[in-house]
Specification:
By secondary structure, the protein is an alpha+beta fold. The chain has 20 helices and 33 strands.
């Protein structure tokens, strides 16, 4: 018997017979591993357990504990759902069905809309398919065989037609259902774990609004029922925290069809919160030696041609023509980014190494043409304000500047708002510009800055911007969701395009490095994240109303108004609940509005010149003077 060697992740090798599969390798390692195996990797590529290995291949076994396991289970669940639809709707035409974050979907074309009752029937049939423990079997076809195999399936045939001649096409079959698929899948439907169909949506074929509208069924799949139950609880909690719902209840902002998708209107309370965020961060940036600039909302198209946006980002921008009144008509573009204005300010006069680093920031409102289907409240809007900054510096200064940015990120995200966060360093993509030495210096500077801060990071190979590497900071909120807000990017492209230089110590011209950075990112999006993170109960320093005064009866109104004026003079945002309502109703209203403090005013408080203080989570915390209460509120500022 001829034997071959397989390399294992721990560096050891194992001997198996020639023609052995990934499952055979798992069995040779041990029966428990073979029983737990879902799939494997061969030389880093995901494969199913039936894949035959070659001598010297590096083999790893995927089990339910592996990070790849959920993706494979969800992909398999999509196929089981498609089989269930085929059984219940024999004339259905099939689109695609990938695994996605937290679940899977599949697109279908049938002669009537799916109903909620259909979803129940499909899910019931899926459970039956799982109980039948059908094997997922891989097949290989040439292009002609694949074309014949998918007769009556126009969407599959379109995908087949686009494949290069001679390419081997793989399929997976379970029971009587066969699908185009690269795989891998779990060995049988019986290993699917826990799943649930979640919702219906419309989806244009291949995302093209000129193509047929298909019906998309979304589902979620997990390894255990416990994991599924936890996910459903997170979704329920997420729905309660939805910033769009809370924004309406708390009178923070609204959206109007007349204004257009993704363009929020901020009510007084919402505007107050955004301004408080800006004022606080502005003071912090001044303390860290930034300078503030203000740039226009639009520029002539020439600027966007220099920057490269006209060629590469035009579809995401708003362009229009202006008759200048002297026979000239110029094309203008609304800014989707603040970079060009900062570059022009830097280039407005000669710069020396003594001027660097130059840290320029702006709360700049930008506009991007997002498709209405992806606009989502404040989280993805067409108009938003960025806490944008650009640092112009020498190569030697990049490391220290990035360390300082990471220090600011930690102060803002962890110390002030209580977020846990992780970091990713994204390296040079296949399509990029700039000399290799610049990329090497910049990437090492980013990694070294993370290490200097003691910040662990993952490397996201090849996912940098075309003009330079970057660090992305990902927050984890109160219910475990992740959000990408802060980003730090190194740019070789724009300083060159705009002809920026500085005089070196040798009195020669050199091109500065340009660091793009945001901390909060989109102010609107961060506002939405805060609303959901705190379930609407913003920290006292950021609450639009920090205290409400609740007079027990009308005779206490005068004292309430006097107290409000004193608190406002001391820097506390307060309002009086003067409606003729019972005190318990006013307290309930303040609780519903997530006001941090309720100040109850009756005869005793008037006589002693005090306020009876209720905190929104602790309840009654006793009486105190107006001055002491003001000090209490102001002490909660970061």
């Amino acid at each position: 018997m001829v034997e071959i060697s397989a390399k294992l992740p721990d560096g050891n090798t194992i001997k198996v017979p020639e023609g052995a599969t990934v499952l055979d390798v798992a069995s040779a390692i041990g029966p428990r591993l073979a029983a737990a195996a879902l799939a494997g990797t061969v030389n880093g590529s995901l494969v199913d357990l039936g894949t035959v290995i070659s001598d010297g291949d590096e083999i790893a076994i995927i089990t339910p504990k592996s990070p790849e396991a959920l993706h494979i289970v969800r992909h398999s669940a999509a196929h089981v759902m498609a089989e269930a639809v085929k059984d219940l709707f024999p004339l259905a035409k099939f689109g695609i069905g990938p695994a996605i974050e937290d679940g899977f979907y599949y697109d279908f074309d049938i002669d009537r809309p799916f109903t909620p009752e259909d979803l129940e029937s499909i899910e019931t049939r899926m459970r039956e398919i799982v109980s039948e423990e059908k094997t997922f079997a891989r097949g290989v076809l040439d292009k002609l065989e694949a074309w014949d195999a998918f007769e009556g399936q126009p969407y599959k045939r379109e995908l087949i037609e686009e494949l290069p001649e001679g390419e081997v096409i793989s399929t997976y079959t379970q029971g009587a259902f066969t699908d185009l698929c690269r795989g891998p899948h779990v060995p049988s439907t019986g290993l699917l774990g826990a799943f649930k169909l979640m919702k219906l949506a419309g989806a244009y074929w291949r995302g093209d609004s000129t193509r047929p509208m298909l019906q998309r069924i979304y589902g979620t799949a997990w390894l255990t029922q416990k994991d599924l139950d936890a996910h459903l609880m997170r979704l329920e909690e997420s729905e309660k925290r939805d910033h769009r719902k809370l924004g309406k209840e708390l009178d923070l902002f609204s959206f109007h069809e007349e204004a257009g998708a993704g363009l929020p209107l901020y009510h007084p309370k919402g505007a107050r919160v955004l301004r408080l965020l800006q004022e606080w961060l502005r003071a912090e940036l001044y303390r860290r030696d930034y300078v503030e600039v203000i740039t226009p909302h639009m520029y002539k198209a020439d600027v966007w041609k220099i920057s490269g946006h006209y060629e590469n980002y035009r579809d995401n921008m708003y362009f229009f023509e202006i008759d200048e009144g002297d026979g000239k008509v110029n094309e203008y573009g609304i800014k989707p980014m603040n970079c060009p204005g900062h570059l022009m300010i830097y280039g407005n006069e000669g710069r020396s190494y003594r001027d660097l680093p130059m840290r320029m920031f702006e709360f700049g409102t930008v506009y991007r043409h997002e498709m209405s289907g992806v606009v989502h409240g404040l989280m993805r809007a067409r108009g938003f304000t960025q806490d944008d900054a650009h640092i112009f510096c020498t190569a030697e200064q990049v490391h220290d500047e990035v360390v300082a940015m990471l220090d600011l990120v930690d102060y803002v995200m962890r110390q002030v708002f209580g977020f846990e966060y992780t970091a990713e360093v994204s390296t040079r993509p296949e399509k990029s510009i700039g000399d290799e030495k610049f990329w090497d210096v910049a990437t090492k500077s980013l990694m070294g800055a993370c290490e200097a801060r003691g910040l662990a990071y993952d490397v996201n190979e090849g996912d940098g911007a075309f003009y330079g590497p970057k660090i992305d900071i990902k927050l984890r909120d109160a219910i475990g969701r992740t959000w990408q807000c802060s980003t730090i990017q190194v740019d070789f492209n724009l300083p060159e395009r705009f002809g920026l230089t500085y005089r070196t110590t040798e009195n020669s011209d050199a091109q500065p490095y340009m660091l793009h950075r945001t901390i909060l990112g989109s102010m609107e999006r961060f506002f939405g994240i805060l609303i959901e993170h705190y379930a609407g109960a913003l920290p006292t320093w950021l609450a639009p109303v920090q205290a409400v005064l609740i007079p027990i009866s009308d005779r206490h109104l005068e004292y309430a108004e006097q107290t409000r004026r004193e608190l406002e003079s001391a820097g506390v945002r307060a309002e009086v609940y003067s409606d003729n309502e019972p005190m318990r109703v006013k307290i309930a209203k303040a609780q519903q509005q997530k006001v941090p403090y309720m100040l109850v005013l009756g005869d005793k408080e008037v006589e002693s010149a005090e306020v009876g203080v209720r905190e929104r989570t602790q309840g009654d915390i006793g009486a105190m003077s107006i001055e002491a209460f003001a000090r209490q509120v102001l002490s909660e500022r970061p």
